[in-house]
Amino acid sequence: MREKIDTRAIGLDVGLSFIKWLTGAENLHYGLWDGLEVTAGNLRAAQDAYTTKLFKMLPDGPLRILDIGGGAGETARKLLELGHSVDIVVPSAFLAQRCRENAPAATVHECMFEDLQVDKKFDLCLFSESFQYIPVDIALQKAADHLDEGGEIIVSDCFRSEGFQGHAVGSTVGGGHHIGAYRQTLAALPLITVSEEDITASVAPSIDLEQGLFNVFGHAITRIDTELGQKKRKTRWFIKRALATVMSKRKRFRLHQRLMEKTRTADHFKANNVYLMIKLKPA
Fold it and tell me: Strands across the sheet with 107-109, in order?
């Protein structure tokens, strides 16, 4: 049987390599842009500012931390350097390996959070831009079940605002759980909100930077396409036919939108989403 190509792993590998080349670290999260010019050269500073703000929410340590959706292990590495012990939950085999390399002192659980089975308890369950990928009720209840007495939950993520409007055909910037559904689910659980801060305006410029990068790729593709159209028409025709074979019309439209347009902007993000840093604890 022919083995299926793991395009997700390839994409993560390429993306992380690019981010590490640009910033020196494998952070996958947004940055905080307060006081910073929105340029690629400031991405590392913006991401570091995000981590600094996140860590200010931590209870007094040292802590036993469950890092849920730990990315490539950069956050776990920093937590370990601060003297905490860390377990990481990550479903991707590729990311699990990056976690083992970036945070070798952490315990890595290669599974969905929903499937995690551990006997130990934690002082903190951390969702840093991973909460949106897990059903709200499961994420909150299971995290609470893993807490030791006095433990807390931190959620730092994007939610769909009350006024969220999805694009009928193309991609809509942002996402996550609808904020109303989150609050309704939370109200039915034995959890209380210790603090909640809206940092939407601070993270939104990350979208402009991302869009600018895609437009650079789009410019390169347009330049090559123009040259092929003038000098290698048959080659251009075969490339377009091949693309139509492997990608649906909807996917081609969305790719064109990402590469050639500027529909994904910070203002669009702020109009449709709210980014919150939330601290919870058992009632």
Answer: 107-109, 85-89, 64-68, 122-128, 147-160, 273-282, 191-198
Residue 81 burial (C-beta neighbours within 10 Å; 0-12, 13-18, 19+): exposed
The pTM for the full model equals 0.84
Query: Which token pair is 48?
Result: 């570091």
Q: pLDDT per position in the chain (283 positions), as tens?
A: 556 655 556 666 677 777 887 788 878 889 999 999 999 899 999 999 999 999 999 999 799 999 999 999 999 999 999 999 999 999 888 899 999 999 999 999 999 999 999 999 999 999 999 999 999 999 999 999 999 999 999 999 999 998 777 665 555 667 789 999 999 999 999 999 999 999 999 999 998 888 877 777 777 778 887 888 888 888 888 888 887 787 788 777 777 777 677 777 888 888 899 999 999 999 9
Phi, psi (deg, nearest 5) at residue 141 = -65, -45
Tokens of 24: 């020196």
